[in-house]
Every structure is written in C-alpha cells, then in structure tokens.
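#struct-help
A.M.: can someone run this one for me? Single chain, 144 residues.
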Amino acid sequence: MRLVLDTAVMVAAIRSNAGASRWLLRAALERRRGLILLVSVPLLIEYEAVMTRAEHLDASGLRLDEVGVLLDAVAAVAEPVRLAYLWRPVLPDVNDDMVLEAAMNGRADGIVTFNRRDFRAVAQQFGVSVMLPGEAVECLEKRS
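D.P.: on it. Structure tokens below:
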C-alpha cells in the first residue's frame, strides 16, 4: 500500500511510543506489511521544520540530531516522489497541498491524516483514500 503521512501523523509518531502513528512509521522503516511510504523533498523539509520544534522535541524526548537521523532513515526507505505537477491552492492550508502533491504525483493509495475534514472533498475529486492512522493500520493488517 502506497501512503503519504501528513506531518501531524509524523509528529504523533515521535511523541508517543504507542498508537497507530508510531506503528505506521515503524512499519515503513522496517519495510513490512507492504507499506511503501511516499515523500517529496518539500514534504521532508516540512517534517523536519515541524518535528524539530522545541515543544515536539520536549514531548518526544528526542534531540535535534536524533530527529535528523530518523528523517534520514525515512528518506532512505521511502519512495521519492518527483513533483511533476503542482496542485495549488486546493486545500485551506498550503502545507496540506504538499501532502496532496506527494500523493498525486506518487500515485498513492492513501493519505494518512488527522485532518479528514479538509482532505475529504479532495479525496473524492482526486480518487485517493483519506484515512486516520488507525484505519491505515487496519488496512495494512488485513492485507497481510
């Protein structure tokens, strides 16, 4: 399953040792359950900018360099998405447009986000699933 993780899902993955967001990140890093993580350069930069904020570092117990190592690992296992076409502006938050662009250019099966409301109309328009982290985990568990 080809998925794009919204930045908030990545933040949730580092802030909590349990939960679906952490499960998805670990599955992607371990290349299991048929999960193919899709990332673009702008999305990786967004991940870094948000995940290295002081409040997220404090809550996660990670140091700045450890987040860098984690994101290097994500970049190493993820399928890079070249942005051949940009859809802007489509969503209320320009950072969400980066998620949509990675999904569409990478032929994603789904976008994993906590922000289903803003993505719902786009999902119908572009034909990509929008799911909560727990729903993505359920889909991946059913597939294996």
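A.M.: thanks! Helices lie at 7-15, 20-29, 41-51, 54-60, 64-77, 94-105, 116-126, 133-143.
D.P.: also worth noting: The first helix runs from residue 7 to 15.
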